[in-house]
Structures are given as structure tokens and as C-alpha cells.
Hints:
Helices cover 75% and strands 0% of the residues.
Amino acid sequence: MRNIPGPLPAAAVLIAYLGLTIMDALIKDLTGRFHVGHIVALRYWFGAVIVLPFFWRAAAPRITVSILRQSAARAVLITFAAACFFTALSIIPLGQATALGFTSPLFVVLFAGAILKEPITPTVVVSLFLGLAGVVVMVWRDLVHMQLGGSSVLGAGLVLAAAFGYAMVMVLTRLHSVKAEVGVMVFCQTITAGLFTLPVLYLTWTPMTWVDLLVFALVGAIGSLSHLGLAWAFSRANAARLGPLEYSVLPWAVLFGYLFFAEVPQIETLIGALMIVSACFLVLARQSVRAVPGKTR
């Protein structure tokens, strides 16, 4: 692993996270016309088509039964997390869903302690409670009125479930990377996720126009190319330097939510987001958990 001086890796990360935010906005629009299962399946099928030429020649000779088995486990978690997050996008504003998704790094630290036996310090415990408090602030209005089935509570629950899934994938990727290269794992993970979603695609199939098909292709392409960009950048620069750049997605998410969905962020969303981001920075300052960064949706 070599380090590249200068701004190129950081620029690649910023572009990749912008791409993922654009993908989320496109998916939010698609949820108004298609079943979530349909969206998840096509996101990974088109993503697999994009990944295939990048990794086939390098990855295929190195694929083993063990790697496929591990990829299958991660693929199940990925599809579950994606389904939860995409459903949440149909319920709550894009900016709020993005901010709630920042809880994933906190869960990474928790799972790293349980699975990788990395130490969980008092600072981590404080960070977890601070992040949880930020979530409560975001859904406070529904909680005050005891609307536990309210959109913000339901959406928050789905995003937290997705954050759990993403965090588990990150930690398992760290665990499995001992015996396999990241490129091979990404390739196998995407292909197996596509295979797992075949029955879902059959059950939830909805007729599409050519424009819809192009949008799905764009979603798959943006998702895969963004993750390739993240993998390239994090293999060439210090993770501690690049990790905090994930929070650049929040202003983009708020902007896209306002421009395309007329979503005006509430003060609770902004305060809660600040609390969650502060909790994550607190963890970054104290912990050195090396998981593959970035969302895997």
C-alpha cells in the first residue's frame, strides 16, 4: 500500500461521496414508482455489470470457495441494509436520512470491539450515547406526541437498521481482508448480491420505460464507480485523513433534498446531525479502527 502526497486522494473521496449522494437522490425519486425490492435488485445488477470489466481479469483467478462464502455473508447484510435505507428514503427527507446514516461509524467501533476484540474505551461509550441522543433529537416531535409509527420514527428506525448492517459489513470486510484483497472482495460481494436479489426482482418486477432503465443503469454505474474511487483513494492515503470527508455528503443531501423534493431541513435535524457528527469525530480522535470506509449501498 503506497501513499500519494497531495490532494488527489482527497479529491477522489469528495467526488465519490458526491456521487453516492446523487445516487441516493435518484433512488429517492425511484421509490415513488417502484418497489424497493425492484430498486435494490437493479442497483446491484447494473452495479455488477460496471464492476465486472474492472475486476474480472484480476479477481477471477484468485476467487476461492472461502472467499465466495464470506462474500455471500456480506452480500446478505448489504442487501438488507440497502433495502432498509432505500425504504427510509421514501419516508423521510434525504438530509435527515443521510445524517442518521452517520451513526454507522459508531456501530463499527462497537462491532469491532465484539468481533475483532478491539478495545472499547470510555470515550467510545460517551460517543455512542451522544450519537443516540442526536437520533432522539431528530425524531423528538413524533416521540413527544407518542406517534411511534410516525414517519420520522419509522424512517429513523430503518436508517439505524441499515447503519447496523453497513457497520457489520465494514467490520467483516476488515476481518476477511486478512485472506483476500479488497478488489477481489468487492467483485465477489457485488456479484453475489446481484444473484441473491434475483428472486426479489422476479417477485417485485414492474414494467419500465427506457428512461427508467437508463436511470437504473445510472444508479448502478454511480454506485460502483464511487466505491471504486473510495477503494482507490483509501489504498493510497491515510484513512484518518480521508475518513472525516464522509461528512461532506450532508450539505449535498440537504441541497438536493431542497432542490428536487422541496424538503426544508428542520432545526431538530440540524442539531441532531451536529450531535451525531461530533460523536463520530470523538471516536475518530481516539480510535484507529481500520475498516473499509464509505457506505456500501
